[in-house]
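== Polypeptide entry ==
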Amino acid sequence: MSELAKRVIVSLIAAPTAIAASWYGGAALAALLGIIAAVGAWEVGRMAREQGVRPLAVGVALAAAVPLLVQAYYEHVYALPLSVAAVVLVLLLGAAVWLRGVDGRPLAAVAVTVFAVLYTGGTLAFAYGLRYHQYTVDRAGGTALLFLPIVLTWASDIGAYFVGRAAGRHKLIPAVSPGKTVEGALGGVAATVLLAWAYVELVLRPAAHLTLRPASIVLFGVVISVAAQLGDLAESLLKRDAGVKDSSNLLPGHGGVLDRVDSLLFVLPIAYLLLDRFRLLVAAP
């Protein structure tokens, strides 16, 4: 089977699963985010082991738990105080004493474990916050809002790829990702802004009765594209540091889970910040 065929099959399975989980929300969405976070944390550990660092296995479970805890918070079941994070950190350091010892690089092991949890579960959990944003009132509206940054991330990747292939002349950061160009990056930004306007008018407004003002659409599109490209570069940096081509080989034709969601790990928190804290969302007239 060709690599293209493998990519298509994986996409045909992944896309409907993501859409269904977003539509039904609740435990389905939290479980999907938890699974992605757990696999992503495992892949971070896999790359760290290439560098001689063995993160604690409990980090995979902690990464999976973050979206589930966010779901519990939104459903008013239980909310963990912030002090629990400090307790968990202390417990991890204590575990490293027994499980790693001096020769097992305990500081590095705990640091990578905490990083993996925050990098995967901590960022993906913002998808739940977007799905259940205070301005949305039903499944259609919540799903439309959640897919706004997701669709724009795809637009940024596609725009950067095609413009870079057609007109790329100046390397962006060759030491990290030799194939990326300045022209491609600008093309990604332009494509994201254009699709942001179309998505807001054709999907978000009718489905969620929400919109963004013209200046907000431009700002949102630019920032999301920059965040998406930085997320991609950040994961490329981790892989280059570990000396691996892909984060894993779990997804045929695609590499690893992190290779597919690396941009979203930066985009989701930024999108939530812009839409919620900076209040770019307004009710559609």
Q: What stands out?
A: The two ends are 51 Å apart (CA to CA). DSSP finds ten helices and four strands in the chain.
